[in-house]
Every structure is written in structure tokens, then in C-alpha cells.
Amino acid sequence: MIRIINRLTVLPRYIVILIDQFLILFSVSLAFLLRFNFDTTIVLEYNPFPGILVFLLASLFSTFMTKSYAGIVRYTGIQDGLRIVRTELLSMVLIVLINLIYHYNAGRNIIPFSVVFISFFISSLLLYQYRLMVKNVFTFYKGGHRSKVPVIVFGAGVAGFLTKQALESDMTSQYKLVAFIDDDPKKNGKDINGIKIYSVDKLGELAAKFKAKKLIIAIKRLSIDRKNEIVDEALNHQLRVSYVTSFEKWIRNNFDVKEIRDVNIEDLLGREVIRLNNSAIEADLTGKVICITGAAGSIGSELARQALSFKPQKLILIDQAESPLYEIERELASKSLQTNIVVFVADVCNKVRMHRIFSENRPQILFHAAAYKHVPLMESNPSEAVSVNIFGTRQLADLAVEFKLQKFVMISTDKAVNPTNVMGCTKRIAEIYVQSLDRHLELLGKASKTSFVTTRFGNVLGSNGSVIPIFKEQIQKGGPLTVTHPDITRYFMTIPEACELVIEAGVMGQGGEIFIFDMGKPMKIYDLAKKMVMLSGKELNKDIEIVFTGLRDGEKLYEELLNDKENTILTHHEKIMKAKVSEYQYDEICRNLDLLEDFIHDRNEHKMVTLMKEIVPEYKSNYSRFQVLDVAP
């Protein structure tokens, strides 16, 4: 018997229909007996057989009309119950109509109305209950009787109930629900279908009592802070943590346990959904020609995705990276037929090439994300950092003025504040140039001038070469995880959040502003590494170690968004502030940049970095060969 059930994956539909008809026959027969107090003599005198035949035919017709047989019996849920009720209601309506027609012609009912109503309730109950019985048999014999891993679910609401249904419905699932925990004290001590609900502070006791191995978060709306608290508590008790990605399929009775996946570090470092001024953004971007440099990078590609959603007339993508640029072009082309997407493999430092692109495509808004960003690499190759980050930006800014762009939005970095490395200083000088150019155009009284806006933020999660992908790779290899210093801290922001704020700041900017974003609280990289090891199910210093390698060239322990002489002005968006920074004269910065360009051509790195330190006095090298150039105070 067990072998037969194990081989049987789906109960054939003809068997479902036959069982349904048998139960309906039983229901109407029982209804006749109940109606006449189990007096078979009276029942036979009434001649119930024509009525029973009509009842069976009406039920069979209703079954095919509503396809109540279509559901897979072993996955029976609430939706199947509702489908059965609809089938039996339709059957009852048909029989009532037949009864009325028969009574009109023969002067009597073919089946008593009371029998019709009684059989409706009996058949609905029996049809649903037998499906649940079959489901339980399948569940037991296809794995339910085997030993399963005990799990605890956080959230004893509708979402928690659906999670329980999903775990019980999937016969391949290796998990068994043993307890619910919930923040609501009113639920404490109650149960959901036999599974007791406990308060959250009992998590450690429950994990030990049931020998639980996993905690599943099953709450639709849970703040990031609360999610972190729950995850930390679970990890302290050696519990793996998962969460339900979406409840929509489960609500539709499609209980796929693939909706439950492990929590990763990005889920814990993200923040609440940003509210954007979409009407203002639409007015600024819809129907426009938008250009994005560095479009194949982490920030540039996400900017392209978000910009595309506002239906620009044309989207121009520029990058040197051929393969990633091809991939983002394919992705965007599949999402929109309204926007003309054009791509250029080009170097922003190539003046002739960039001039031709601007001349032929006439962009109106430019998001400038092209830059070299890796600190140690740029410390070793300062000329490249200066060429791309400073002179590439200068060239694009000048082209924006020449071709009368409406807006130039530059992507900067928190490393531009009190820079300790070449990369950070090049970004600060680029900020200085575009801001001074905006002020210069304003003084010239150009009414239709290009507005230059700078956005400044910290590390983004999952960007190319960032610490999180590196840690993931190291964990997959079994470690060790390499951290430069036990006290090093960084701000983190998700790529979509950063790009949403870039677009919002770009729209609100009138020209000359440097906007900084609320990056939340900085996080120790060592703590980040520890949590990633624990989330992977490994034990720190047993399965995987963390080793300290020392600060790299130009690296500092913590990043800042403003230097000591700067402060901020609030804007209408709570996550965007305007920085009050030291401003420079346009003519002065131009003279310095011309001299800096000469040093590049002369390949004189020391003179080049010395001049950069003069332009940005707060630039003090750290763990770098250029420390010798710093003037002692």
C-alpha cells in the first residue's frame, strides 16, 4: 500500500470525480433518511430514485462547469473548499429550478426542497473533508512520518498560518513546525491548529526544548531594526534564519516553500522604503533625453533602470566595459518599447568621441557615474584617477554647458570628505570644479544655464568589488575572511536606495548644491563579517576564521559625509540634506587644473599629488607613499 502511494504523484481526475459522485449519492440518501426520521417505508413510498438521479446529474454538470476536480488533492486548501461550495451551490440552484418545472407539470416535487438543502451541507462537508484526509495520507506516507528538522516561526498572524500551511503542504519539505513566537502579548499561550504561541523572549528556551535548527520570519511588514533584533537573537541561539519573500502565491493556495529563503546580509543592512516625489521626477524626466555615464557599473545600471521607468524619450548609456554594457542594454530593451535606448562604448576622457555623442544625441539631463573608485588601485595609479575622475568630469561639464543641458548630476563619494587617498581627493576636486562652474555661469547671468548638482554618499551594498561580495566568496571557499582592521567602520546603503535619492536630489537641485544622504549608522566591518559567517550556518573560529591584514594604501578607519568646517541644511526630503561647503573661484580652480594636467603629461606623480594637496588642504595621506608630501602643522 505504501509503495502504491509513494508511486502515485497526482490522484487521477476520473477517480476524483467518481469519489465525488459517490459521496454526493451518500449525501442525498442520508438527507432523505434525515428528512423522514430514518423511516425507510416513508422514503420508499416517496420514490426517491428519480430525485437522486436528477441530483447526481446536476452535481456532475456543476462539477464540470466549476472544475472542482481540477485541484491537486494533496495540496487541498481554503480555495479548494470555496470551489466545492460554489459547485454545490450551483447544483442546488439547478435542482431547485428542475423541481419548480417538475412541480408545474406534475403537481409535485421530484425531490423535497428540505432534502436539497440538507444534502447541500452534507455533501459540501464530506467533499472537503475527504480531500483533507487524502492530503494527510499523502503527507504522511511521502515524508511526513520521517524525522524532520524542528523550526520555529516568528509571527502568529495570517502570514504565520500560511507559513504553517506551506510547510505541511510540501511533502519534500525537511522542516517541521514546533512553535510560534510573536510580539503580541495577547497571543501568548494560544495556539494555531495545535501549534502553541509563545512570547519572543522564550526563543532560547524553545530552541533548546525542541532542538530547533531554524527560525522563519513570517511577518509581512517588519521594520529593519526589529528584523535585526530578531536575527541577532536567533543567531545567539545557533538558529539559521529564513524569511518568507512573498505571500501572494500562498494566498492563492499555491504553497511553494521556495518562497522561504535564508536571510542574507543585504536584508539586514537595507532600510525602510523611500518615499519619492514621483510627480516632480516625472515632470523632470518623462519625454527627455537622458544620458548616463558609467552605465555598466553598479550605480549607473540601476540609475538606467530607474530612469527608464519614467519613460524618457531617449536613454543614452556610455561606458568602457563592453560586456556589462551589452547586458544592461539587453535588459532595458526587454522592458521598454517606448524609449529609444542607445549605447556607446566610449571613454569619457576622449574629447572628440564625447563631443560627437553630445552633438548627435543632444542630451538634456546627464547623470555622471563614470569614475575610478578602488582606493588602493588609484593610490598606485594616481594619473589614471586624476585623468578620469577630474578631467573626465571637467570635459563632460564643459560639454554640458556647450550643448545647453538642463541638468548635470554628478555622483560623488564620502571619501571626498577629509580625503586620505588619491581617489577621494580626485572626487573632491571634481566636486569643486562643477560647483565653481555653476557659480561662474550664474555670475555671467546666463538665464538658461546648465544646473550642476552633486550627490555624495557612502558604500553601496553589492557593488562591484565591495566588501560583501568578497566576504561571500571567502565564505564559500571556507575562509578565512580578511578584514583590514578590527575597528574599521563604513556606512552602507542599498544600490536602489542610493539611486532613488540621486534622482530625487537631481530633480530638487537648482544648481551648485552638494547633497548628502542619510546613510544611517556606520557599521564595523568586523561585526559585518561575524554576522555573515553566522548567517551562513558556520561557526566563527571553528568553521571559518577572521584575520586582520592591516589598513591598505590610502584607507582610513572611518568615513565621513562632511568635514569639520561644513554643516548641513535640511531639504523637503528627510533623507537628503544640502551641504554647506567651502567654495572656490572658477578662474582659480581652472588655473590649478591646467597645471595639474601638465604634471600628468610629465608623469610627475609627486608634483601632481602635491598640487592636489594645495587645492584640497584637508587632504592628508594615510598609509600611503604620498605621506611624505604632507606639510607638518
TrEMBL record:
<keyword id="KW-1133">Transmembrane helix</keyword>
<dbReference type="InterPro" id="IPR003869">
    <property type="entry name" value="Polysac_CapD-like"/>
</dbReference>
<dbReference type="InterPro" id="IPR051203">
    <property type="entry name" value="Polysaccharide_Synthase-Rel"/>
</dbReference>
<dbReference type="InterPro" id="IPR029063">
    <property type="entry name" value="SAM-dependent_MTases_sf"/>
</dbReference>
<keyword id="KW-0812">Transmembrane</keyword>
<comment type="similarity">
    <text>Belongs to the polysaccharide synthase family.</text>
</comment>
<feature type="transmembrane region" description="Helical">
    <location>
        <begin position="12"/>
        <end position="34"/>
    </location>
</feature>
<dbReference type="Pfam" id="PF13727">
    <property type="entry name" value="CoA_binding_3"/>
</dbReference>
<keyword id="KW-0472">Membrane</keyword>
<feature type="transmembrane region" description="Helical">
    <location>
        <begin position="87"/>
        <end position="104"/>
    </location>
</feature>
<feature type="transmembrane region" description="Helical">
    <location>
        <begin position="46"/>
        <end position="66"/>
    </location>
</feature>
<feature type="transmembrane region" description="Helical">
    <location>
        <begin position="149"/>
        <end position="167"/>
    </location>
</feature>
<protein>
    <submittedName>
        <fullName>Polysaccharide biosynthesis protein</fullName>
    </submittedName>
</protein>
<dbReference type="Pfam" id="PF02719">
    <property type="entry name" value="Polysacc_synt_2"/>
</dbReference>
<feature type="domain" description="Polysaccharide biosynthesis protein CapD-like">
    <location>
        <begin position="290"/>
        <end position="580"/>
    </location>
</feature>
<feature type="transmembrane region" description="Helical">
    <location>
        <begin position="110"/>
        <end position="128"/>
    </location>
</feature>
<dbReference type="InterPro" id="IPR036291">
    <property type="entry name" value="NAD(P)-bd_dom_sf"/>
</dbReference>
